[in-house]
From TrEMBL:
This is Phosphoglycolate phosphatase. One of its GO terms (biological process) is glycolate biosynthetic process. It catalyses: 2-phosphoglycolate + H2O = glycolate + phosphate. Its cofactor is Mg(2+). It comes from Photobacterium lipolyticum.
Length: 227
């Protein structure tokens, strides 16, 4: 595998890339639905529904479908989202875990003085605690959540913001993610992108989104970025 040349900054997605978080997300979504007297949701369903942020996830849970019902009551949607946030916070993220090789690989990049950022569609309020909980918060210069800016992935706004802040050319940035939203954001920003096969991508192979490189294991990243 030929390494990328000239990478000076790496942006990472969180859920499905660094962290297997579906069990906690599914628990919170299921509790929110049942608290409202709605049908519960399973880990298998939520695995196919995440990636577009919490509002869309809850809309899908209420609709029991990957497509959010167009006639969904906005007040019910907001009530469900509030319940979801509460249950997700109260659960303490105890069922989430880093994927194999994540901590060691991030540490290697950190020691090589390659700056890194989180660019996730997860609500920003939950991200710092998760990073601290898993001992990786010190590795990132920037943490961007799904509500940090008005636009989230697949829009490239966050990647453009990072390029501006750190004075990077697009060819000097790498995006690493598991979802088509990550690939589309990177392509729109014209930066390099690695797609990981093990995460959450609506049941579709990540190769279908045509990332520059496809990897099966996170630790393989040290073979595609020179350190």
């Amino acid at each position: 595998m030929k390494p990328f040349e000239g990478i000076k900054f790496i942006a990472f997605d969180l859920d499905g890339t660094l962290l297997d978080s579906v069990p906690d997300l599914a628990d919170a979504a299921d509790k929110a639905m049942r608290a409202l007297g709605r049908p519960g949701v399973s880990v298998e369903q939520v695995t196919l529904w995440i990636g577009n942020g919490a509002d869309i996830l809850i809309g899908r849970a209420l609709s029991q479908s990957p497509e959010v019902a167009p006639d969904l009551d906005p007040a019910l949607h907001q009530q469900a989202r509030t319940l979801f946030d509460r249950f997700y916070d109260e659960g303490g993220h105890q069922k989430s875990a880093l994927y194999p090789g994540v901590k060691e690989t991030l540490s290697a990049f950190h020691q090589a003085k390659i700056p890194m950022a989180i660019v996730t569609n997860k609500p920003a309020q939950f991200v710092p605690h998760l990073l601290e909980q898993h001992g990786i918060s010190d590795y990132f210069s920037d943490v961007i959540g799904g509500d940090t800016f008005p636009l989230k992935k697949p829009d490239p706004h966050a990647l453009h913001w990072l390029m501006d802040k750190h004075q990077l050319a697009a060819s000097e940035m790498l995006m690493v993610g598991d979802s088509r939203n990550d690939i589309l954001a990177a392509k729109a920003a014209t930066c390099y992108v690695v797609g990981l096969t093990y995460g959450y991508n609506y049941g579709q192979p990540i190769s279908a989104s045509d990332p520059d490189v496809v990897l099966d294991h996170f630790s393989q990243l040290t073979g595609v970025v020179r350190i």
